[in-house]
Amino acid sequence: MHSSCLQYCIDLPLEKEVLTETVEKAKDWALMHGISMRSKEHFTKDNVQIAPFLLLPTSFPKQEFEKAIQVQKILNKLMHIVAHDYDFLKKTLASTIAVDEFSAKLFHIYETVHAEGLAQDISIGLLRSDYMLHGIEDSKIKQIELNTIASSFAGIATRVTQFHRYILTELEHSDKLINVPENNAVSGLCAGLIEAWKLYNNEKAVILFVVENVTHNICDQRFHEFEIRRQNPKIRIIRKNLTEIISQAQLGPDKELIIGNNVISVVYFRSGYTPNDYPTEREWSARLLIERSRAMKCPTIHYHLAGTKKVQQALAQPGALDHFIKDGSIARQVQEIFTGLYSLDFNEYGDQAIDMALAEPRKFVLKPQREGGGNNVYDENIRTQLNSMKESKERTAWILMDRIYPPLQKNYIIRPGDMNNCEVQDFTCELGIYGIIIGNAKEIKVNKQVGHVLRTKPATATEGGVVMGIGALDSPYLV
Ligand code: ADP
Ligand code: MG
Ligand code: MG
Description:
The chain is of the alpha+beta class.
């Protein structure tokens, strides 16, 4: 791995006294403005603690940032079209659902509502397309994945941008603020949910947040809730997990989703993307009930499936985009941000991919059909995993991807607890761009790019889950 050639916003290290004072101030600012989450170790609903964040914004090439911003509406539309292509989803996911029970159950819900006819034909996407920088001298963005369900951190990211503007000013670098782009991610995403609420056209109907049994990332979720209420105080929000939903929800005569006295206009999933969210068949029935209802869903089951890694891999195959994007120059723009993705299906291409990865595992990442971090396989473990499954059908549930080694950049990470342990370290970052899209098979009603987040992790970590405490929230300093 190599150090970045990108210019930093401030020369490091900071002088010791300045650092100590700045870190203390930063922690208090973070707590007072909601750069916070609930502790994993000592969970209680009475407390939050700071979410890990970077003291200074991390440098990011301006041109590549702008490219990511510019391509977002194209990706939104692409996802929308892919999600509405039943034949493509069925063909692409066939080998995966044959062996992966979780994907199969999602697909089964899709088949069910597709056969019955959709009670609500409009889908809402709050998407986040993630990128890392590839190449040292002349770094280019490469897409890591595109999330169509529970795209998180827009709430906290908005605050982190404000924090970095504050801290640069405190350090007497206010001339640099121009390089920290404005970020209104949370208001943009919430405007999408409000737009959907309006389309439902029932002033009394509420928005349902489908949440985990235990929510660590509470501030991010509440930022969304409070922002919706700020933009439109008429809209009430309720929070339920899938287990509560199955015992409390029912469909009305016109397939309205009803919980207690509330008709639900919009269902916003902040859970439901991992097998853990479905401990029993009852939670699966809850997902099906929601899908069968007339409520608007963020996402619908077909949007969820369009965001799987298998679909991402299929879209990256030479020529695949031409089917969905008729303008060749736009298709090439999208292709350019993709990196190598390989199917492990039972055929000669799958065999070739496996041989390639066995020969040089460090050049690849092995990914199952899972979300939420911590599921991918790296380095020598790729050999172990591939050797254990290469003769079995199980391998078709996985995809292989070229591994990106982004440039290293120096910064300070601030975590709860380690006040005295703040030293300059090497990090790599991942940029996420948020988009909203609303529409049905015939028409796209809303398509926007609405903001960004940077997540940064120590150079030594393969994955940077922020909720898991490895990665940290950050914002880009454009150079
Ligand atoms: P998830 O849906 O679990 O977030 P991702 O595909 O985003 O799955 O992978 C999780 C993390 O793994 C990313 O945030 C990134 O840190 C790392 N990662 C994923 N793909 C690559 C890659 N091709 N090269 C390097 N790191 C990767
Ligand atoms: Mg990810
Ligand atoms: Mg994901």
